[in-house]
Amino acid sequence: MTQRERFLAILVGGLLIAGGVWWGFDKYRTAVKKRTNEITRLQEEQQRLTEQQLQGEYANRQMGEYMVRSLPGNLEIAQGMYQQWLISIVQQNEIAGYSVDPIGPRPVGGLYHQMSFRVLGTADVPKTVALLHSFYAKDYLHRIRDLSLRPTKTGSFTVELTVDAIALMTAPNELPERKDDSWRVDGSLAAYQDPIMNRNLFQPPNQAPRYEGSPTIEAIVGRETPAPLTFKDAEGNTLRYELIDGPTDLVSLSSESGTLKINSPDKKEFPISVRVTDNGHPAQSTEQTLTVKVVDPPPPPAVEPEKPKFDDATQTVLTGLVKGRDDWEAWMHVRTRDKTLKLRVGDKFEIGTLKGEVIEVTRRYAVLEIDGRRFNLQQSGNLSEAAKASEED
Q: Which stretches are annotated as coiled coil (predicted)?
């Protein structure tokens, strides 16, 4: 064998060895990849089965919870029992003029019956919230589908509820009634009411009453003196009054009318404090400090003389100017009394509502003065008309 043939044989042998190695490596890599894919598939299958098992266990647990919370499987028993329970919580929370009426059950998916009820009544906000607490505290499979509150003229609300409840078809007919409260609701009614009652759903925030009276109240010594307190409420709510500080032996306060009654045998001055609370939601209150002064009674009012029903001055006429022995006289005739007054200078007169004095008498007129005004009364002149004319001048 020549050198060339030997070299060619070595080359062919090397190629065959390399091809065999490559073929073996490829087979190995394919086997490893197949094994890896199979391991991955098995792991995914294991995870799927585990999840399916967990979901099944969760579904079983959930179904068990639903079974415990379900109404009895018998539709008539379930509907009657649930309606009686609705009536009981309505009565318990003092809903006035109530009615609880079934709307009609319907089967759903061959799994359960859905029963619906309509609850109608009248209540204020605290009783309405208490009714909702009683409803949600009961651990049934139920819900309030629709809630309607309509204000009435009396300050309460017309409450209307549409309620849905579920009875599983596989539930036994003798299910015991749920006694424990639902974990979904705070067990304390006060804690449940607080975030609702402390805000008004239909109006701006409730404002506290304002005092608009005087800070000082006067009372008469030795006499019971009523003194109404002037508080105004922006919303027009009903107010209740309370005396929180002051001598209760001398002062009392009506809780409804807000009238103070003060009766002190001595003249003195002392402070009192009152609290006024409205009935809004939430209720607001105001405290006000006042000063009470016990003083002497005021002087009696001056008694004005009763005016005559008929004024004689309107029927008084100057009938004559007569020269007497010493001086001139003015003769004034009061027709209503058929009386003639003979007046000289300096004489004072009172005729009807007019009081005056004769200043001067001449042959043509008499000068009279009434309330500081002087005027001339001519022959045959009317006294009342002349006096009225002098007021206009």
A: 25-52
Among the listed residues 283, 285, 203, 200, the one whose alpha carbon sits nearest the alpha carbon of residue 241: 285
In this structure, the number of other CB atoms found within 10 A of the CB of residue 170 comes to: 11
* Alpha-carbon 210 to chain mean position: 15
Look up residue 304 and give its DSSP letter. Answer: P
Distance CA 197, CA 199 (A): 5
Structure confidence at residue 364 (pLDDT): 87
Q: List the one residue out of 99, 287, 296, 81 whose CA is nearest residue 171.
A: 81
Distance CA 291, CA 262 (A): 12
Question: Does some domain include residue 17?
Answer: no
Of 207, 194, 173, residue with least CA distance to 285: 207
> Within this chain, do residues 103 and 133 fall inside the same structural domain, yes or no?
yes
CATH of the domain at 348: 2.30.30
For the segment 275-296, what is each residue's pLDDT rounded down to a tens digit? 999 988 778 899 999 999 999 8
Asked whether residue 219 is assigned to any structural domain, the reply reads yes
Tokens of 156: 């309460």
The token pair at 45 is 């299958």
Q: What span, in angstroms and rounded, lies between the C-alpha atoms of 361 and 82?
A: 112
Residues 136, 184: contact at Cβ < 8 Å?
yes
Whether pLDDT at 180 is above 90: no
Beta carbons within 8 Å of 129's beta carbon, 6+ residues apart: 192, 193, 196, 197
Q: Calculate the average pLDDT of the chain.
A: 86
Q: With CA atoms as reference, report the closest residue to 382 among 316, 288, 284, 285.
A: 316
Q: Do residues 373 and 355 make contact, with C-beta atoms less than 8 angstroms apart?
A: no
